[in-house]
Amino acid sequence: MSGEVSGPRIVVGVDGSPSSHAALRWAVRYAGLVGGTVDAVAAWELSGMYNWSAPVVDTDFDEAEAREQLAGELRDALGADAAASVRALLVRGNAADVLLRAAEGAEVLVVGSRGRGGFTRALLGSVSQHVAQHSTCPVVIVRPDSS
What contacts 101, CB < 8 A, 6 or more positions away? Predict the structure, then answer.
């Protein structure tokens, strides 16, 4: 996933949450300061794939629709001009694992403090906590904008 890029590569996890939008804006600002590029990574997986006790899911995942939703999310969070400078990556797999692989060789991995799931009172989400403990590059955890 690292690809050939010039300058520092900043990887940011995107999941539609207010925290991930704040992380995305932070990553773009940082990239501007250091002359880097931004990879916005969204992960998807089918919840019934690995566990027989999981609820039945529709296995007809529309990847093209998901890519368009990701592009729309980038435009909504950043504006059209800034979104055009971000490389959007939609990757199948566990979110924490996908982000750790994407961040190999990156300058920094940026994630929101809490994503869409989990407990609303938790200080950190499970993904942000996992990548903070296992990343091979520095991790920045961004709290949602207060407005």
Answer: 1
The number of residues making up the chain comes to 147
Structure tokens, 136: 């091979």
- pLDDT (tens digit, 9 = 90+) per residue, 22-69? 999 999 999 999 999 999 999 988 655 555 555 555 566 678 888 999
Question: What's the predicted TM-score (pTM) here?
Answer: 0.82
Q: For the residues of 30-79, what is the DSSP string, one character each?
A: HHHHHT-EEEEEEEE--TTSS-TTSPP------HHHHHHHHHHHHHHHH-
Tabulate helix, strand, coil % of the chain (nearest 5): 35, 20, 45
Please tell me whether residue 126 adopts helix, strand or coil conformation. helix
Residue 71's Cβ-side half-sphere holds a number of Cα atoms within 13 Å equal to 8
In angstroms, the CA 131 to CA 31 distance is 20
Q: What are phi and psi of 44, to 5 degrees?
A: -140, 145
Token output for 81: 């001009």
